[in-house]
Amino acid sequence: MVSKIIIAICFVTVVAAIPAQPAFTGWGAGGGAGVLLPPWISAAPWFPQWTPCTTVGSSCSDCSTKIVCTKIGGLQRACTDPTKPYCNLGECSATPSEQCAVPVVPANAV
Predict the structure, then answer these.
(1) What is the residue range of the signal peptide feature (predicted)?
(2) Has residue 11 got a pLDDT over 90?
(3) How far apart are CA 75 and CA 27, in angstroms?
(4) Which of 9, 46, 84, 97 is most exposed by smallest CB count within 10 Å?
(5) How far apart are CA 45 and CA 48, in angstroms?
(6) Rg for the chain (alpha carbons), in Å?
């Protein structure tokens, strides 16, 4: 019993000797407050990127990136499949949407 009290007093003494550190706010990576991830991990292309959403469902943020929205936020994912590189109606697709389609120029229209 005495040894436990001595260990507790030593622990309190060591903790009291350590100077107070400023509050750590985190690197702010990964989308959530208090997420403690270094920037080199959160900036990796394979790491999911969270975005705010207003409605639940899938949509396209650009021609090759889709956003899947849930109740707690949206997960932004790139269309990395070589057979389905375009985002069309919220899904990765082999055919581009109207906004992302390359306009066809007739051969004699130069």
Answers:
(1) 1-17
(2) no
(3) 19
(4) 46
(5) 8
(6) 26
Amino acid at 108: N
User: Strand ranges (DSSP E) for the chain?
Assistant: 49-51, 57-62, 65-69, 74-78, 86-88, 91-93
Residue type, 75: L
- Residue 21 predicted with pLDDT over 70: no
Alpha-carbon span 59 to 78, nearest angstrom? 12
Distance, C-alpha 64 to centroid of its chain: 16
pLDDT in tens, 35-48: 567 777 777 766 77
Distance CA 12, CA 69 (A): 48
Tokens 């001595």 identify what position? 6
Please name which of 65, 73, 69 lies closest in space to residue 92, comparing C-alpha atoms: 65
